[in-house]
Amino acid sequence: MFVSLLSFSYAVYLLHLEILMSYIFLCYLSVTWILLAVPVCGLFQSPSSKPSSHPDGGLKSECLWNIMRLTLDEALAVGSQLEIAAINGTDIIPLSPTLAAQCGYSMDSDPWGNTKVFVSLLGCYVDNQADETFNLGLRIQMYGDGLSKKVQHDVTETCSYSRWASREILCDRNYMEVSTLMVTPEVPVTMDGQKVQETWQDAIPDAVAPNSIWKMTFHTPDSKVMVLKDAHRAGYGAMTTPTRLVLRSPYNMPETYAEEVAGVPMEVFSVSTYYKQVRRLAIIVSAAACPTGGLVFTDEVITWYVPRRIPPLISSAFKILETHMGINGQRLDKTMMAIRRYKLSITESHVVIELPVGSPDGYYKSHAPDYSYHITYTVEPMLELLWRAEDTRADTRYKVLFPITTPLMPRPPHVTESRVPEQKVFNVLLGTFLHDVSLLNITFTTGVLTVTECNARGFDFQEHRFANSSKTFSLQVPFSDEVVLKHNPNPLTTVYFLPLVFGLLILPEQIPFPHPAELEASLEDVVLPTTTGFCDQDNFYISVKYGSQGDNFQIMMLHAGSWRELDTELYSLTDNNTHVSIVVPYTAPDTVFETVQSDSIRARVDLLLLETPNMWQLNDLSLACYFPLTMTECYPNGTVTALAVKVESVRNLNPKYLTLSDQSCKPVFSNDRFAFFSFSLNSCGTTRTFFDNVMAYENEIAMHHSMGKHQSRKGLINPDYRHTVSCYYLVNDTETMAFRTRPRNSDPKADPGVGQLVVQMRLAQEVSYDLFYQTEDYPVVKYLQQPLYFEVELMWSTDPRIALVLENCWATLHEDRTTLPSWDLIVKRCENLDDRYIVFHPVVADARIHIPAHVKRFSVKMFTFTTDETVLKEQIFVHCDADLCDTTKPDGICSGQCASPLRDAKPLKPTGSRRGRRAADISQHQISSGPILLSDSSNFV
Ligand SMILES: *[C@@H]1O[C@H](CO)[C@@H](O)[C@H](O)[C@H]1NC(C)=O
Ligand SMILES: *[C@@H]1O[C@H](CO)[C@@H](O)[C@H](O)[C@H]1NC(C)=O
Ligand SMILES: *[C@@H]1O[C@H](CO)[C@@H](O)[C@H](O)[C@H]1NC(C)=O
Ligand SMILES: *[C@@H]1O[C@H](CO)[C@@H](O)[C@H](O)[C@H]1NC(C)=O
Ligand SMILES: *[C@@H]1O[C@H](CO)[C@@H](O)[C@H](O)[C@H]1NC(C)=O
């Protein structure tokens, strides 16, 4: 008898992955048995539970015509190992893959543990009651790493099936089965493709029981004979039931063969079976032919071609009576087929089934061969045909269970970046993936971050699931994050670059596959640093405000015509991370002088912000200001100081070599930009001119050509450099003169220095002119007829070429020199001849007086104004007009006091100005005495 107790334990591989729901373990199990992948996953359940049918349908058995189907939902899967065994009464027979194929059992499962077991009703260990009622028992055992966690389900099912055709061919995933009605010897029947021969054989061994198989001849197509025992040992199934002969072969056996029928590859199993009937030996030739190919795939449709006429099975004309299509062993009605858009059609040569890729009866699966994303779609259609041979009128039911997996379909993930321009964020969308892909981590240039870490960092990682169970991942990375690389192709543009690698994982197998992506965005978003500045009397104040790139700039200053880096030791510099402030004195080495004026200098500083290493000029500043600086000072004692400044336009000037008109007059101090001169007005070639109320002295600072040793180096000096030094001595008068000359073209501007020539009139106590009344002595009291000694002096001047001459002198009652009455003392440089008491006194040089021409002395006798013999007032004031004149021009007034006496003395003048026209080289001073009082005892005279 057929006794096979091979024990087989499925090889299992378990990988644990903790996913969000930590109490669920998904696992993956693969078996070496082709077409049988048996995963066992899910919750560990109590070992005591033994449902024959699970309350929620997790474990379900169904009779589907000539097969029984057992489905185990993934939710019920447990542990990492699964064994199935057949139950025959009290015997438990573990089913190895070989035994399963030999006995009519097949198993299949998807990666998530949804398992299907098909059992042929004519399989081994099925309790067959008259070929009509079939009692099946299956035990499913699942356990994890330790056997202690074993879970066991026993399933029993009773199926009724009596509509057996004469011949039934079943092509399951792992075996081909053919069963034939055994005819009685009295009625020999020849059926299409199946010859029943009646032959009396005398040589049947006695041991062969009635109605049992003796030997088999396999047609490969060569013949090979085996007795039953040997056929079983070789892996074939062969048995008789009450009415039928059942033969079964796995695919690719030595005694089966491949044949292409109408372009479809098929596997053929053809056997002549000798069996003993009650009285004689019968031979049945039976064959099964199952398709092993015939698929055409497009991205949308799977087309499965099955030959309409299969020669090993059909020898004569036939008629197809029924066609059915099913899924997972279950027939579908027309409505369902329409809903699913399945098509079943018969052509001249083929029966054609079309299935849209992605129908819900199958499933998609992700793959990553060579780290590139692919998907497959798996579905298991069934084709059922019933045909009738026209000669014998015998029926054949032909049923194929045909799991189909599409070839790998590449689905390269797309990385799309949608960005709102104002938001400086990479908005990354990665997809599309199947539901079985998860994103574990992302590798940035700075390292790997898990999805959780990404969110903690503010990258807003999200997984988006869609109704069709596909998914995408989104991520937002701000440009400002350090994982984003930045560079500037030009000063205004920033290129943001985000290289990353998505660490993806296919579940439940835990197949990792990285997907690299590079994102780039270019924005004109650079804010350049800006410069501003202002000045006070001494310094430039420059402020550089950082741009968006921070302190990426170098501050360069223009020095001697070329840029050099800011000397931080030279200037006071403060940097508060938003601004750099620099204080530059206007005399600093990095400034240039543009122009000079008498009282100021215009200096400029040039600044450049330079980006290194690209040497981009980000910004610049040219700041020029006037700084107060007295270029020429004219002291009353005749000393002049003058500053010569090297301005921008005379770059090659060396101030050291500047001189005054007299080239022996060199600077008392000089450096690279200044020459300082100090000289007396009567020296160094100073010239002098008289104007109205002004005495003008002029000298010139220039690069004079006597420097023999530099003559050969002309380029170094600028012979055109001329700087005029002018001193204008104004008469200290009631009116102040403003005087300005036009500067010479291209010369440094120089306004004349303005000085004061002071003329004073004092009253001496004695004729010796040694002691004078001081300011606090006024009013000075004098008796009538007492002499008044006046001295008029040009103060401080050391210029011997000036002479002082008294033009007019007169007395008034009031301080105002123009009031009446008045009395002339000196008229046109001569004594008033109406007044006998007016006397000029000679002046000689002494310790006090160096230049006698600067001093005039005269005396009058104290008098008083009377009207009608009445003394009007006791006090008088004396006023003079003093002329300063050029002694080098003796023709004029300067020839002396009353040199050519004009005896046309005027009478007492009622009013009017005493001034007349004067020569251009004369300046006039107006001076007055303080009040002089007539003593009360004046009448003693
Ligand atoms: C099933 O068990 C019965 C007895 O319990 C035995 O007679 C029969 O041969 C067994 N069937 C097979 C196929 O082993
Ligand atoms: C990142 O994810 C991948 C899966 O694609 C995994 O292989 C890798 O080990 C992970 N790296 C880290 C550092 O977690
Ligand atoms: C930095 O200095 C600038 C002026 O120099 C000033 O306007 C700014 O407010 C300062 N910033 C800080 C943060 O102190
Ligand atoms: C003239 O006056 C200035 C300023 O008071 C003084 O520095 C200088 O020495 C004086 N020169 C002479 C020659 O007295
Ligand atoms: C003239 O000089 C005196 C003293 O030196 C001074 O007080 C006065 O202001 C001067 N007058 C003018 C007009 O400059």
Automatic annotation (TrEMBL):
Residues 905-924 are annotated as: Disordered. This is ZP domain-containing protein. Its main location: membrane. The gene is LOC121838606. It is found in: Cell membrane; Secreted. Residues 633-901 form the ZP domain. The chain crosses the membrane at residues 20-44. GO terms for cellular component: extracellular region; plasma membrane. Keywords: Cell membrane, Disulfide bond, Glycoprotein, Membrane, Secreted, Transmembrane, Transmembrane helix. The keyword Oxidoreductase does not apply. The keyword Ribonucleoprotein does not apply.
